[in-house]
Automatic annotation (TrEMBL), chains A, B:
Cofactors required: Zn(2+)
Annotated EC: 2.3.1.222
Gene Ontology BP annotations: 1,2-propanediol catabolic process
Lineage of producing organism: Bacteria, Bacillati, Bacillota, Bacilli, Bacillales
Source species: Cytobacillus solani
Protein name: Phosphate propanoyltransferase
Family note: Belongs to the PduL family.
Amino acid sequence: MERERRTHVPVSISARHLHLQQEHVELLFGKGHELTKYKEISQPGQFACNEKVTLKGPKGTIENVRVLGPLRKHTQVEISRTDARKIGVAPPVRNSGNIAGSASITLIGPKGSISIQEGCIIADRHIHMTPKDADEFAVKDKQRVSVLIEGAKGGVMGQVTIRVNDRYALDMHIDTDDANAFDLKGNEWLKIIAD
Amino acid sequence: MERERRTHVPVSISARHLHLQQEHVELLFGKGHELTKYKEISQPGQFACNEKVTLKGPKGTIENVRVLGPLRKHTQVEISRTDARKIGVAPPVRNSGNIAGSASITLIGPKGSISIQEGCIIADRHIHMTPKDADEFAVKDKQRVSVLIEGAKGGVMGQVTIRVNDRYALDMHIDTDDANAFDLKGNEWLKIIAD
């Protein structure tokens, strides 16, 4: 008898945000500054910070962009294509952490500003899950799957990356462009339909 | 021998815009005012006007929204979900012309402003074509099809309405949310994959 696969995942909408390396925290918020927690977010150990920056590109700025903790080895800015067009930058679609050759952008904090040569990306659509989840969904780490969306602006999101780690909570992350195009509010359960 | 179907359609991105009835032209731009042509657009007989308005909702405004001509019997405002969230209105996804019970919104012109009880929609994804095109694509007026998009943010747009009229030019129209979510620039040819 074939084992029944799990198929449905909850979806969350990631607004624009950034991760910082300590050196950049200090350049933006002052020497010796440490990130302060505002609230927990869906992935265990991750948190929204009280700290916010302004993003600046050749065509404009976006204010009040929240920093997420904990610290990273390399600063990474995640925005949508809509954001990118507004400020005139051209980030590639990438997995988190894959920033080599990605877009440059300027960050402005209360104590200073920095221009990073690379680190600005549009995060790929992805699903966090544990090894146990992966087994039940019959998928593997780094596999790309498709996800079905019902409704008047329904369709299929392709190129959704599976990310497996025993610290992850089951959650699909999409950006605000995907949410708005498919008319999702971020409280839906969506069906994985292909692998 | 089965006849080969045509499959590919050019895509264009529709930014927010509105169509006006004459009574509203006069309320916004002055008694006796007639719309003036700025430039032709892709559908024969349709044109962008020099006239622009400000859209106002409970949470904010969007300035410089262009009027399209010719006049319509009923004023209709077409925005994206991103726009709608910004100004705090909640338009339904609709075919052009189907405005009964759609969202209310306020229009501000240089000579006056009006609040319309209904008429604000998110335009459904649709493909304009002639009867000859429809025959070659083997589709019918009002039929819903799906369209394939390749690339790092690829997938399938569902619920795409076929619109057949002998005055139409072959063109798929999507809004800026769909364009940005699927990373389209508006110069692509996309494949109809299901009916």
